[in-house]
Amino acid sequence: MCECVVVMPRPPRKEYAGALYHVTSRGNGRAQIFFEDVDRKRFLAQLQDCLEQYEVILYAYVLMANHYHLLVRTRQANLGRFMQRLNTSYALYSRYKHKKPGHRLEGRYKAKLVQSDEYILALTRYIHLNPVKVRAIRSLEREERRRFLEKYDWSSYRGYVDPKRREDFVCYDMMKLLGGGDRKRCRAYCRYVYGFLMDDDAQIREALERSCHGIGDEEFVKELEQELRDRKVGTDLDRDVDYPREHISADRIDKVVAREYGVKATMLKADGHTRGMGLAKAVAMELACRLTGLRQRAIGARYGGVSSQAVSHARRRVKTEMSSDCLAKLAAVIRSVEL
């Protein structure tokens, strides 16, 4: 059976908690990956799910016909796991939805480590201007381009210029750099973007082209590339530069969840579907998936010997019955607790 993603040589990549990345992923051979609006809606739903599961912050996105851009920050050193889940889930959906066997996406997405937050606004602008930089639109006059950009539905730009059109899974905190209240910031961002409707931003373009690994000044790029070269061993199995990840113990999760729900921690691990546990065991499974680094099979084995499918069912239940804010607060408590 054909795989959904092409396996290609892996350039090393630097991962650590708090890292900021500009990510691009394309269709295999630059082929189209979004064919209709239902595809885009499905991708955004899967993106939102992955953002929550891997605790990734999304600042900006755009979906084009044959590729997409993301500007993300990883709370943990887990960009690879986040992107693998996102691309694999969409590739499987697209393959069966459109009955097109074979590879859907290029095997290795591009992710450039961003030096600092000073590049964030410029990168959001670069991402949001993608729809008017394609060949078919470049022939339009300025006003026509502006109207096209404002009507484009498949980017986070809408929420940057209109507070009423903001999406829950996008973080707009960087708008505060523009000063003033919400409306004033939106007007300022409009002017900021419109300044490059017709021309490219030479400064950010230069930063983007400086390296395939990072976006920053010359010294930052030089140090980054040297660090990555030092980690290469000369094979296709070169590993990403991976800083130590904070993996929370399942015992710590059990302690906090048990206290939160007024049950005994040992009961969370009782065999099968323990009566009276209610949502507690499902929440413990969800948090274990997010924080421990364990796979669902191992988590199911811990919490009563259930299957990975049962863990998936429990996680869907949690997302239905609990808000993402509640889960995030509980995860923060778990990180701060000492056993």
How confident overall, as mean pLDDT?
Answer: 85
CATH superfamily of the largest domain: Transposase IS200-like
Q: Report how far apart the termini are.
A: 47 Å
Please identify the top-level CATH class of the largest domain: Alpha Beta
For this structure, the CATH topology of the largest domain is Alpha-Beta Plaits
| Count of domain modules | 2
What integer value in Å does the Rg equal? 22 Å
Q: What is the general shape?
A: globular
Unreliable stretches: 1-9
- Written as H for each helix and E for each strand, in order along the chain, the element string is EEHEEHEHHHHHHEHEHHHHHH
Tell me about the largest β-sheet: 5 strands, mixed
Question: What proportion of the residues form beta strands (DSSP E)?
Answer: 5-15%
Give a structural overview:
It is a single chain. The protein has 339 residues and is of the alpha/beta class. The chain contains 15 helices and 7 strands. The protein folds into 2 domains: 14-231, Transposase IS200-like (Alpha-Beta Plaits, 2-Layer Sandwich); 250-336, Chromosomal Replication Initiator Protein Dnaa, Chain: A, CATH 1.10.1750.10. It has a 5-stranded mixed sheet with strand order 3-4-2-5-6, sandwiched between helices. It starts with 13 loop residues before the first strand and ends with a helix. The model is unreliable at 1-9 (pLDDT under 50).
What layout of secondary structure does this protein have?
Elements: E1 14-15, E2 20-26, H1 37-54, E3 56-63, E4 67-74, H2 79-97, E5 110-114, H3 120-128, H4 135-138, H5 142-151, H6 157-161, H7 182-194, H8 202-209, E6 214-215, H9 218-231, E7 241-242, H10 250-261, H11 265-268, H12 280-291, H13 296-302, H14 308-321, H15 324-336
Parallel strand pairs: 1-7, 5-6
Antiparallel strand pairs: 2-4, 2-5, 3-4
Helix pairs in contact: 1-2, 10-12, 10-15, 12-14, 13-14
